[in-house]
Amino acid sequence: MGADSSKFVDFATQLCLSRGKHALPDLDLQLPNESARTTTLISLEHLNVNVPEWDSANDRFWLKAMGLALDSRAQGVCQTVQSAGGSLKGLVWANAGLQQIHMPLGEPPPMEAQKPPGVVGLAYADIMGLRATLREAGVNFSPVPLKDQMSNLQGVGPVALQCTSPTGVKIYAHGIRSETWLTPRGWMDCTAARDQGLGLPSEEASQCMGMPYIRLQCPVGSTEGLARFYKHVFDTQSEFRQGAEGLECWVPIGVGQWLIYQEIAAEVPYDGYHIAIYVNRFVSAYRAARGLGIVWNNPRFPNLTYDSEDDAIRHHEFRILKMVDPESSQVLCEVEHEIRALSHGGFCAKAWLEQEPA
Prior knowledge:
Elements: H1 5-19, E1 41-48, H2 56-65, E2 69-70, H3 74-83, E3 90-96, E4 99-105, E5 118-124, H4 127-137, E6 159-164, E7 170-175, E8 180-183, E9 186-189, H5 190-195, E10 208-219, H6 223-234, E11 239-242, E12 247-253, E13 257-264, E14 274-279, H7 282-292, H8 309-315, E15 317-324, E16 331-341, H9 350-353
Parallel strand pairs: 1-4, 5-7, 10-13, 14-16
Antiparallel strand pairs: 1-14, 2-3, 3-4, 5-10, 6-7, 8-9, 11-12, 12-13, 15-16
Helix pairs in contact: 2-4
């Protein structure tokens, strides 16, 4: 859709509100018939972590060393939030293929720097080139233990190296066979994806091809409740796997992404980072979350509140903070989720929605 995306979003909103029907778009993932993957989660689009300032260390790590690319939309979003009275002092979006790292700047202590308790997986077609740029940028990196090489990801090699951002975000870098982007329907040749209208705005292409997973730590005994949570709210069937540290809950997103929860026998901190996920059946998810009492308004964004279903539809998103077991109502952990409808203007595959049957 490109430049016409705003027209599509406005039309989707009017269709929902004027007719009283919630006909927000969904996307067919085109999963093979034999696939056991059951999910309404379409794209794990970004991780949001505060950084104190955009200094030379952050620029060197994220752009020069890791090969992410600046997204031109960040300044406009920051200005919108500021004009509504939000606390943002600045904002950097760094594209990793069709996924992103969002970095708000200048938040007061103790929120000035955030890091998820876990690891972010990033994929590269040229691991040797990545090693060279890391050395040139003076970024330390190392191998990971054999027991934690994440070698069971389709289309992605085992972890080639690990490194850490200036504010403590831990990265696992994986190799892939060719220059392909991770789309909601899986890995796709970059040129073919662009020809189909997929992409994010940046002055230069990112050397990072995508973000196949984020793995977060969670308390011992919480993975079964987390699986029930994603089933209840999103009608998504998780998998259980035995990881290097303990039992893990693998939540499928699209054809090739995962949100992974890893049980650890320790307290799991939460410092306010968030993740953004695009979903099918947006209204159903809102109603389920509302029924559990977990729809949340982040005070950082006073222009975005979700007190009613119509509010969520108008904004094409809603947020949750507390993740609860739908059977017991027990709070399992806190991870802010920004849940977006596919009608949201930021969706990387808007062009595919035009091809979906009415």
